[in-house]
Structure formats: structure tokens, C-alpha cells
Design a protein that fits this description.
Elements (H helix, E strand, L loop, with lengths): L1 H10 L7 E4 L17 E4 L3 H9 L4 E2 L5 H9 L4 E7 L8 H11 E12 L1 H6 L16 H9 L3 E9 L5 E8 L9 H13 L4 H5 L1 H21 L12 H6 L1
Parallel strand pairs: 1-2, 2-3, 4-5
Antiparallel strand pairs: 5-7, 6-7
Helix pairs in contact: 3-4
Length: about 250
């Protein structure tokens, strides 16, 4: 709801606007646009969640998103002023086809926002449980900005958000026609990443031993607890559990 309020005000969205959310799930985000009278469309390939969104009065295109889908939706009158895509950029096998779809479907002055787990936090906080079978990519602003640029999109703002142990919300617009001003937060985040070493392969190679050290400390704790006759209980069943258990 905060996102919807903020973006409505920031972009001046209204009854003549169009919001197209990629991977809209059960409509939890798009539903907050409805009371504002802002037309929406969800794109969601999973049948069950798409039906849940439709039950809220949200139109949904049940398909995977890429350049061809974007052309079809554009030709059907769904060119977008705003395209949110939360926690989906890590999941798509063909990231270039996916981002090209945003270029195709955005209006000349439209804005896309992407939220994804920041690899800086994955490394700094040893969040290696976030590495699992559904994820194809782990993005930095450096890498994601380069992918956007290759498809005619300019990153003009970035925010740090708490989701998933530290994520980025990246704002992009068509490079040639976008009207949003460049935020100083982009350069600041790029410098933060450079200072952390994300522009060098060495920082990534060091992660292996850091993960092994965490594993050794955890195993030592388990062995010591068992020797002391203590009981250890675990709760939860996320995909991340497979990584930590292995």
C-alpha cells in the first residue's frame, strides 16, 4: 500500500494511466490501485494465484513474461505507465528477453521498478541460504544497470529496502524518452558496491571459504550442544532450508 501511494504521487497516476505488474501473484500489490481508480493488469503464469487475483477484480494475463508477451500486450492496448516487478528478476532463465519486454511495453515516459535480493548483503551477511534452485541470478546494481542499458533502459534511482535480508528497489525508464531526473542515490550505491569489491571477481571467489567457515561454526555448535545433552528444534519449510541442511 505504501508503494502504491508513493508511486501514484510520484508519477501522477490516475484514471488514464496503466499499471502492469509482472509476476503479480495473488494481486496483493495491484489491489491497492483499485480504490484509486487506476487501471491495472497482472501478468502471472501460475493458475491458482492468478485466479485469486481475478477474484479481487484484477484482470490477469496468464503467461510468462518476455519480449513476445510484451508485444502482444502492447498491441492489445496495455502499454504501461508503471511496471512493478518484485522478487522475479532472480527467477527468469532468460534475463535479456525478460528485460526487453519492459522496453517494449513501457510508454515513452513510463517507469519500471524491480525489487531483488542485493548480492552485497548476501555476501556481507553470509546469506548463502538464498542460493537455491529457483534462482538463476543474484544481482548487484552494477550488473542490473548494465542489463537494463543493453535494452534501452536507464536506471535513474535506487532504494535499499529490508525485504529478504536486504534488497534493492531499482527504478528504470526508457533511455531516450524518460523524463525522471537522475537521483544521486544511483552513484552512491555504485560506489558502495565498488568499495565492497563487487566490481572484482576476487570478492566473489572469497565467498566459498567464508561459507565453509560458517558451516564449521554451525556444526561445532551442534556437536557441542549434543555433547551437553541439549535439544535443538528447527521450524520452517522454505526452499532455503534445503541449502542450509545440505
Amino acid at each position: 500500500r505504501r508503494y502504491v501511494d508513493d508511486m501514484t504521487a510520484r508519477l501522477g497516476l490516475g484514471a488514464s494511466s496503466k499499471v502492469v505488474e509482472i509476476a503479480c501473484n495473488d494481486g496483493y500489490l495491484l489491489r491497492w490501485f483499485l480504490p484509486k481508480g487506476i487501471p491495472v493488469l497482472g501478468v502471472e503464469p501460475a493458475t491458482g494465484t492468478a485466479e485469486a487475483a481475478r477474484a479481487l477484480g484484477i484482470p490477469v494475463a496468464s503467461c510468462f513474461f518476455g519480449a513476445e508477451t510484451a508485444r502482444r500486450l502492447r498491441d492489445a492496448g496495455h502499454a504501461a505507465d508503471l511496471m512493478p516487478a518484485n522478487n522475479v528478476a532472480a527467477h527468469v532463465p532468460d534475463i535479456n528477453d525478460f528485460i526487453e519486454g519492459f522496453r517494449v511495453l513501457l510508454k515513452p515516459t513510463g517507469v519500471a521498478t524491480f525489487e531483488f535480493h542485493h548480492i552485497l548483503n548476501l555476501i556481507r551477511r553470509h546469506q548463502f541460504d538464498a542460493i537455491y534452485h529457483e534462482h538463476y541470478y543474484y544481482h548487484s546494481l552494477h550488473t542490473f544497470r548494465a542489463i537494463c542499458a543493453a535494452h534501452g533502459l536507464t536506471v535513474f534511482d535506487v532504494e535499499e529496502i529490508a525485504m529478504h535480508g536486504g534488497s534493492l528497489r531499482v527504478y528504470a525508464q526508457p533511455a531516450d524518452t524518460g523524463v525522471q531526473p537522475m537521483s544521486p542515490r544511483v552513484a552512491a550505491m555504485l560506489e558502495t558496491e565498488r568499495a565492497f569489491g563487487l566490481a572484482s571477481v576476487d570478492r566473489y571467489l572469497a565467498v566459498d571459504e567464508e561459507i565453509r567457515a560458517v558451516k564449521r561454526r554451525f556444526l561445532s555448535f551442534l556437536l557441542q550442544a549434543k555433547a551437553e545433552g541439549r535439544t535443538i528444534a528447527g521450524y520452517g519449510a522454505p526452499a532455503k532450508a534445503t541449502t542450509i541442511l545440505n
